[in-house]
Known about the structure:
Layout: H1 5-29, E1 37-43, E2 48-57, H2 64-73, E3 87-94, E4 103-113, E5 121-133, E6 136-143, E7 164-170, E8 173-181, H3 191-202, H4 207-225
Antiparallel strand pairs: 1-2, 2-8, 3-4, 4-5, 5-6, 6-7, 7-8
Amino acid sequence: PEVSLQQAIQNAPARAAQLAGLAAAHRTRHCASNIPDTVSHWETTARTFCYQTHIAIDSQPEERLDWLARVFYQQATLPSQPWYPQFLGGETRALDVAPQAGIAEHLLARGRFDLGLREPRYYRQLVSLAKIDDNTRVIVARSIDEGPGLPDDARLAYTLDPNGEVLHFENGRLHWHHICCTPGAGVLPGRADRWLINILRRTGLDGAERKTYREEAEQLRDWLASPDPALPH
């Protein structure tokens, strides 16, 4: 479930393009405003399901595109996330890597989350920020085998490809796509964890997972609709 830092850096341009393509296709199918939509598909390379959630938020200023892209890119540095209260804090570390093929910058991130399990789960990722075109920004997040330090008793969870956020501005609407590909939450060891989550997803017992994505989109919408969606300090 983890790749090396160099491999993740090399793969980032292709992954950003893949995420942008998935998001564009979802926007053509889901045109409603302010209502989230979650779909899933089998991702062969990850050997599990990838979930895509889209919401188009009305009456947003164009400058919010780059602002929100920066917020998502650096989200592990926030004390809390207004759209995802399960976030329990994190840390980032800058990387001095030459820009490549649309990727503006990279950083190493570690986030801690309450997934409703006995112990929090940590994600250790390379996060890459891409400018696809004037109206589209992509944040790629991939689990890697290094990064900010972890506590000795940390329980890792992982993100595979394709995974990240896509932001798109068009006709006064800010589109947010949350694309999540994970092999499980570390409930069972190794491959058994992927087997368990795939059974739940194949048999339609993924209601709790879908509910999480839907609520995250709704909370982002409500936060951005407030008069001044300030970040927590």
